Protein: JAB domain-containing protein
Organism: Melittangium boletus DSM 14713
Amino acid sequence: MKRWELLLVFCLGCAGPSSSSRARVVEIPKGPWAEVPAVESSTDDTSIPIGLIRDMADALLKRPGARVCDPVTHLPIVGLSTEYCSTVYVAGSQDSLSWRVTEPVMGSHGSCKPFSRVEDDDYPASQVWVVGYIHNHPCGSPPSSGDLGTWPTDAFNPYVAMAEVRLIPGNPIPAVHGNVAVEIASAVVAERPDGTRIFLRYFPTGEIQQWSDARARWVALGQCSPRERGSRFKTPRCENEPLRLLSE
């Protein structure tokens, strides 16, 4: 893959906040974020919708420092580059469920700690299901085993496992829409130097999909998995290497 200028990682079902972030005495993030309209869930595609991914990318990359990167070293600049993260969740009932995102939390030049709880303006905790988080990388790179490896494995902390991330106090069962459980997937948004963006989804089965504007749907690219720890290769291992993006 070619080098990307910017990278957004949507970890749905990914690692939750660390113990240190849970210990912080701060206000619980509120949602939905006014800059990212809620998107109604569809029974045709119960995973994260393209409309929400587009809106989140637009809103997050407008934040101060979200795009700041040293043009020579291609590394974040301490004090200028900033990572942000927002919690992604679904809210509502089995008959009417919508995808939402909280107002972003500001991190440092190299990290951001999300939250596993949400205060929604429209629904009580019993009708809110946290499914993951989104964060940006000021300096872009191809999707790496580091990003894909945070989920569905549980190597980082006990909050990584999909079933635990999807549950919050008061919600003992996963979110269901039309008798179908919400399907969890990580997503990556990469922006090229010319401003065009690539939208990818990664499922626990290893399937990677790319959004096609021409076909107005997600297209399967292949099966991939993170490489072993200590591997000198950063890109995931795919059944047909290298993984080829759509040519449109």
About this structure: Confidence is low (pLDDT under 50) at residues 13-24, 150-172.
